[in-house]
Amino acid sequence: MGEFAWNAKYSIGNAQIDAEHQRLIELANGVEAFAASGEKLARIKEAIVALYEYVKTHFQHEEEYMLELGYPQYEEHKKLHEEIIAEMNAIMKHSGNLDVLVYKFKRLMNAWVLEHILTEDSRITPPTKPEKTTDPQTSEASISGTAAKKE
């Protein structure tokens, strides 16, 4: 089993986004497996590049989903995505030492999985529609506390 594991609490309730989160965890575990097996730095960097490309694709899908929902914190969330990409770029650019590369990568993945998915992505939900109820005694329809006479 890899260092990173999917947990149902990471689910945001969108099948595509959840599947992509699971795939990202699998790719992260692949990097971890290469590092643990003593794979060469170049091979580990290749695995990180593959993960990086998938992260960019995933972020694009997630941003499209947020726009589709009219997610009010879209701009802030997109900025977080940009920061994660920038950090991945910095890690790949400045980590010539295998131990440093793996340490920085693990730190980023833990922060991303534990913080970003759990706190940020979990907020991306379809807006709830107000429930329509009818008061049988007054024959009035009510939407979120606003009464409207039935005709």
Give a brief outline of the structure.
This protein has helices at residues 15-36, 41-69, 74-94, 98-120; strands at 132-135, 140-143, 146-149. The chain is mainly alpha-helical and 151 residues long.
Question: What are the key terms here?
Answer:
single chain; 151 residues; mainly alpha; Four Helix Bundle (Hemerythrin (Met), subunit A); three-stranded antiparallel β-sheet; 4 helices; 63% helix; elongated; disordered C terminus
Helix percent band: 55-70%
Our count of helices gives: 4
Radius of gyration, taken over Cα atoms and rounded to an integer in Å: 21 Å
Largest sheet: 3 strands, antiparallel
User: For the largest beta sheet, what order do the strands appear in spatially?
Assistant: 1-2-3
Structural class by secondary-structure content: mainly alpha
Query: What is the second-level CATH architecture?
Result: Up-down Bundle
Strand content: 5-15%
CATH H-level homologous superfamily name = Hemerythrin-like
What is the domain total for the residues? 1
Low-confidence stretches: 141-151
Total count of strands? 3
Could you tell me how far the N terminus lies from the C terminus, measured between alpha carbons in angstroms? 63 Å
Q: What sort of overall outline do the alpha carbons produce when their principal axes are compared?
A: elongated
- The ordered H/E elements are HHHHEEE
CATH topology: Four Helix Bundle (Hemerythrin (Met), subunit A)
What is the CATH C level class, in words? Mainly Alpha
Task: Calculate the mean pLDDT score and round it.
Answer: 80
